[in-house]
Amino acid sequence: MSIGSNKSTLLGHLACFGAYCIFGFNIVCCKNISNANVLTPMDLFCFRATGATVLFWLLSLFMPKEKVDLKDLPKIFVASMLGLFLTQMSFLKAITMTTSIDLSIANTCTPIMTMFVAAIALKEPITAKKIGGVLISLAGVLFLIFNSVGLGGGASETKPLGIVLTIMNALTFALYLGIFRPLISKYNVVTFMKWMFLFSMLVALPLNIKSLIHTPFAQMESKVLWQVAYVVVFATFIAYFLIPVGQKRLRPTLVSMYNYVQPIIATLISIVIGLDHLTWKKLVAMVLVFTGVWVVNQSRAAIPVHHRTKAIVLLLIVFVSCKHVSQYQTSDLLFVEGSTESAMDQAIMGSTGKMVHVGIIEVAGDSIFVIDAAPKTGVSRRTLQAFLEAQKEENGALPNLKHTRLKDNRDAAAFVAKAKSLCGADYDFTFLPDNDSYYCSELVFECYQRDGKPVFESAPMNFRNTEGEFDPFWVELFAKQGMEIPQNVSGTNPDALFHSPMLLEIKEK
User: Fold this and answer.
1) I need a surface site. Which of 80, 324, 466, 492 has the fewest CB within 10 A?
2) Which of 63, 53, 54, 7 is CA-nearest to residue 467?
3) pTM, entire model
């Protein structure tokens, strides 16, 4: 059961593009506010955290109530420190030591750092091309630092410490993007962000209350006030509303790639209004950084799994297929755990549990086949190797598989014969019974019948998550079909089948 939603993915792309366009203009606004010398970086952060906290909590009053598990609050606190407090504080301090263009160029290391975080947290492979791209981009950042040292003093010039703070900004945000996607996916955007900003505000205000009390508001020009308002409303409230929308729908590395919108926007604005100027050294640094990004992106796009990694995975599939010929028996069931990369998998896991797909095993001589109902193929019969290949995640990794067997499988041949007779049927996107189409667990339920009675029990269908809300994937799927979500209609699901008392799990030997 692995299928993405095109509209959901498009929404993720649009959300990220919009957020980073806002951030691009934000760089210039924050620079202007800093040059006005009326607010310290901590002052501005307190305004951002307090303003966004008030706006998100007010917005939550008009939305369905959603409780946050107590065990998740410490995790959200850490996410708040990485994604908000440390990220914004390092950024706001860095803008006092760097020009807008230099800040934007140096900040392009965020996706590269996110790649490393994803390799650790999500087990994404790091290929030779990716390493080469990192080194090229690093050369660009170092070239920028070394050519900023001799530019002279003054807050409008770049200092090495400013670049260091910018890299710190990139690293903390990369950690936030790479680690906390599962937690972000668990809650509504507004619920998650209202707690994020509340924690940041509670940390920041006690550290800066004296400075805020003595803030010279009377000395602030109207254009500075308007730019502060932009930073609070657009670059904080709206942008941080949009980013989790993208995080729910796109991989962390892909979200961070939108960071490259910032230097384009900031450069255009800075040059047009005369706040900055473009030199050949900046162009060389920019070319090096973006060349590295291109190399990294080519590795990901042109070769989703490096040839060496792909060969290992294919060998593993063959090995698994051969190793378990003797272990598998006809009518065994093979369950697949969900992937964080699939919108449908996330929706299933959120409403029913870890298992998102199930296939029926048929052993024919020395060959093993799997009969299953999948969104792209409908009901089909394919080799175990082909089945495993279809379950691979985008990084080439095989998901966790669970092998089960009926405690009483005396009618195994009849069960599989029924499944084979249904090959060619459509996938049941309506999730309704008795319509000559089948979703994966429905196929099992219909085929495994003894004396006219199903072996497995049916149960009311559930499409709500743990907070009682429908995942956007389900809302969109059924809206496109012009039907209500079939909540509580009789049916089944892979996780319920896996936990059926009729099955035994077969452990690896």
Assistant:
1) 466
2) 63
3) 0.51
